[in-house]
Amino acid sequence: MRSGAKVAVVGGVFVLVAGGLGYGVYDVVLGGDGGGGTETASASSEVRTGPPGKEEIAETAKGFLAAWASGDAPTAAQLTNNESAAEPLLAGYTADAHVTKAVITPGPAVGTKVPYTVKATVSYEGRTKPWSYSSELTVVRGLTTGKALVDWQPTVIHPELTEGATLTTGESSTAAIEAVDHNGKVLDKETYPSLGPILDSLREKYGDTTGGSPGIETWIEPADEQLPDTTLLTLAKGKPGKLQTTLDADAQAAAEKAVKQFSGASVVAVRPSTGSIRAVANNPATGFNAAMQGKQAPGSTLKIMTAAMLIEKGITSATSPIECPKDVMYQGNTFHNLDYFSLPDSDTFTTSFARSCNTAFIKKIDDVHDDAALGKEARDVFGIGLDWKTGVVSFDGSVPEENGGVAAAQYIGQGTVQMNALNIASITATARNGTFRQPVIVPQSLDDRQLATASRSLPQNVTRQLNDMMRATASWGTGRAAMASVGGDKGAKTGSAEVDGQGTSNSWFTGFSNDLAAAAVVQSGGHGGDAAGPVVAAVLRAGS
Question: Fewest C-beta atoms under 10 Å: which of 62, 75, 251, 504?
Answer without folding.
Answer: 504
